[in-house]
Amino acid sequence: MKRLVLLVALLIATTGCAPKFDYANLDSLLKAGDCVASKEMIKTRQSDYGSHAQLLYHLDCAMIYYECGDLKNAAAEFSEADEMAQALWTKSLSAGAASYLVNDLVIDYPGEDFERALINLMAAFTYIRDGNYESALVECRKLNTLLTEYNDQYEKKNVYKEDALGRYISGILSEIDGEYSEAYIYYYEALRAYKDYNTAYGTPTPPSLYADLLRVAVPADRLSEAKKLTKGFTGTTPSYRSARKKGRVIYVQLNGKAPKKVEDKITHMAPTGPISIAFPRYVTFPRGCTDSSLTLKDDKGNTLTSPATVAEDITAIAVKNLDDRKTRIWTKTIARAVAKQVAVHAAAKEIEKEQGEFAGMLAQLAGQVAASATEKADTRSWRTLPGQIFLTSRFVEPGEYKAFAGNCSVVDTYLETINVKAGQTVFVFNHTMH
């Protein structure tokens, strides 16, 4: 009996738990614009994440600071999260053995692949908002190193091994830095990645990307190649020379809520007791708006409106990414269930030899119940991400402009006043996540 008691105690003692953080309350606070209460809430609820989901704590802290305009603290939290995610991802393969005994919640959460990529992208946005383009470019280079690792690691196992928007932003920042050959390569990689995005997630290539590739192809001395790559593009774009006399406005809108993971559990009543298999799936949130635009108004009364397109559908990426891993998740879950059954059966047989058939049967049942109760799906995810990211780009004459957002076909939501100089790129950010 001692062997079974120890086995049951081990299962119960090591059962992991998903974070208990109150996201509904946080969402209400952010929707009301109460940044003081939001930051206070996250700082006093670190223990709600549990010891194995501290990466999510730092990511949620970073996003709250980001939304509230506390960019220094946001950058610090993203930096800590990036280092933690890198270490955990490296460790995850060797640490996975423990989860075969109980469940995936007993190991540290290293983040989904796309979540890790979005750490660098969101950190880049943070630095851009703070006017620190140099650090933003560093984050983009980290992102591109990560994507290279994914390509080396996964080959054709996962659809998500490229981040098209991350590549695109890398190109924009490289162009700002005057690194035209580097910018051309990033734009080329973004163009290639968006072809995969269109197939996998239904996300088309932003029209401005074709124009950007054609424009930087001139100083990069790759115009002939660029024309072949953009064959069929019918949009208009300023030439490289004329663009230098204008300013460029990049509009980025974080919209909606990222999906959340929930548990699906199947329990089969076998002759020896219940056998459970648990696995995660994403639940998506309805999108309040499906359209977006940026309107610029100058002091002469002129109005320029540019429609924005979805450049990163985080919801679609999350769902597809999990779907890609479904077979591997099922394989691991079934193997874990079998391992528990073998351990329980061996303990029950030993008890049967020592104390008789009835005692062995009771031991088998108790072990099966414990094994079933400890079978839990890993429902951890980065819940404070947006559901999608809109983007548009436009060249304008130098001058001062009032920037307005258009959402749900409603225009004139004032954002800020910007001053655009010749040869300068200005970013305008908008957040409609709540």
Automatic annotation (TrEMBL):
UniProt keyword terms in alphabetical order: Signal
N-terminal signal peptide: 1-20
Alphabetical list of PROSITE patterns matching this protein: PROKAR_LIPOPROTEIN
Coiled-coil segments: none
TM regions (residue ranges): none
Gene3D superfamilies: Tetratricopeptide repeat domain
Keyword Flavoprotein attributed: no
Organism domain of life: Bacteria
Keyword Signal included in the entry's annotation: yes
Identification of the protein by name: Tetratricopeptide-like helical domain
Annotated organism of origin: Desulfoluna butyratoxydans
